[in-house]
Amino acid sequence: MTFASEFKEGLKLSAAALLANKVRAVLTMLGIIIGIVSVTLMSAAITGLNNAFNNSISAIGADVLYVQKWPWMDTGDQWWKFRSRKDIKPEYADKIAQEATLAAAVAPTVGRMGTIKYRDKTANNVQVAGTTADYAYVTQMSYDEGRFFTEEESRGDRPLAVMGSDVANQLFPNSDPIGKTIKINGLSFRVIGVRSKLGNFMGMFSLDNIVIIPLGQFEDIFGTHFYATINVRAVSKVQMENTKEELRGIMRKIRGLAPWQEDDFSINQQDMLTQAFDQITRYIYDAGIFVTALSLLVGGIGIMNIMFVSVTERTKEIGIRKALGARRRTILTQFLIEGILICLGGGIIGLGLSYPLSMIVDKLLPTSMPVSIAVMAIMISLIVGVVSGLAPAFRASKLDPVEALRYE
Amino acid sequence: MSENVIELIKVNKVYDMGAEVQVQALRDIDLTIKRGEYVAIMGPSGSGKTTLMNILGCLDTPTSGKYMFDGVDVSDMDDNELAKIRNQGIGFVFQTFNLIPRSDALHNVELPLIYSGVPASDRKDRAKKTLEMVGLGDRVHHKPNELSGGQRQRVAIARALINNPSIMLADEPTGNLDSKTGDEIMLFFEELHEKGNTIILVTHEEYIAEHSRRIIRIKDGMIESDLPLEKNGKVHAAHMAEKVPG
Hints:
The complex is a heterodimer of chains A (408) and B (246). Chain A contains 14 helices and twelve strands. With 408 residues, chain A is of the alpha+beta class. Chain A has two domains: 3-56 and 275-406, no CATH class; 86-264, no CATH class. In chain A, strand 8 (200-201) and strand 9 (205-206) form a beta hairpin. Chain B is an alpha/beta fold and 246 residues long. Chain B is built from eight helices and ten strands. Chain B has helices at residues 49-56, 79-89, 105-116, 120-133, 149-161, 179-194, 206-209, 233-243; strands at 4-16, 22-34, 38-42, 64-69, 72-73, 90-93, 167-171, 198-203, 214-219, 222-228. In chain B, a hairpin with a 2-residue loop joins strand 4 and strand 5. The longest helix of chain B has 16 residues, at 179-194. Chain B is globular, with a radius of gyration of 18 Å. The interface between A and B is medium-sized, with 24 and 25 residues.
């Protein structure tokens, strides 16, 4: 008997055996179903989080340094220390640009919420950002339409505005915004560009709900008492650390710090978020792996148990088959396939359940279920099937035909 | 092909019962059965009859001695080799029929062919023909619990015959049947014998054994007597007198 025909017969017999005991088969599958649902959902959530994070983080720029009053990641309960720091002033940008040799572009940004109007349409709670022409280079901005303001326009504080795509869609649903005049907190600005869509930041807020205007105009509207961020683009990613060190030196000089004094500013960068994020996902992952491994273990033990019962129940049948010429391998294959079928069935049902469930989870966390997760789930159930079916199948194959035939 | 289907030479079987207790079930059995013979093995329970049957059926191996089946020494074969001998050389008929309850008659009959690796279409054809031969052509898709005892035993006989075995080994084939159905089965065995099949009948009923042509009596693990049917005349006559009504 060839292995292929053995496999085929084993498949038929096992399927028939399972169908003869549907309720038991489904109950046995339950452990695997739960395990597979948890492994798939966890992977989907982590993949989704990663995707969302990578999309969001790219807006921050891997080669951009942000000089700010507050660090992004608080390392302790020192908020009072950060709070008492002097504000970062937009003027620092010019000085940094002059002195830094490793900075490709430097731009200050200040921001505040404002109300934007175009004719009868109003957009409330829009981020209004004041900056200089170099901001376009720091962020390597791209546009759906138009352009950013030039060096001259920026220095001359001309009333020009570049809009994020959300604002553009809200105020100009059917018309071309370029050249139109909008009002920001009552003052008129001419729209010269629409920035390309950046998307959501971690599903929390839109990066496109923004209007960018020259720094002087911003100060005219909102005043000067806002602390700024100095955005510095390094000449290359490789030079990030050197750029950071140089920037730190320049900042200490600007702040007039003595050598023994601590920095009274923070230089933030994308890495800090990535590290923090990696740590969080690792926690989720570890917890998920633990829960999953546990449920698969319990499921596997359940299957092994039922398979042992099934072997005992069918002792006589095994004896008959052996008397008629079934070899050890044939019996082993038959029972192993039965274990695998239970697990695969559980795996497929689990996958089927996790898809709609991931839609529900998606409301809380971004999820994503690529084919690789499905393949992984199937592989896992296959392995659990083999592992938990092996011992019972081995026992069945080793039964003595004389004893087995006598069994009632 | 040798003339002797079965040749036992000084076969012993000892069971270890643990705690150094040993039971000798068979003692120095010498036995030869020729092709085409119709033999009955008789003996009370505990005589070693069942052990002998298990060894003859290659379900078990002797502790010592030699067993030549169809000219091949099977005394030291491993499980898988024995499985092959059982599959192709031996057709079993059991007292309790031993059909697979979940499978229909056709599948039960084709089982030995599955294990010999016969392709499915060929298998079904042969299984159907064999079922027709035992008179169950119209019960092909019935499950064992939908068949009468006699019909079940005929399915089992069809299963035993399907691989054209060298011997048919029947263990109390009428033990679970009423006497009328039992007689039908014995009549069927008669037919098979006339067609040239080698039949070994294991029983403790004289009137069943008397269907055979040679009766071997086992007692205390040894062959007590081994005589052709005619020489059992006395018992035969007594039995007939008992059977004749009035």
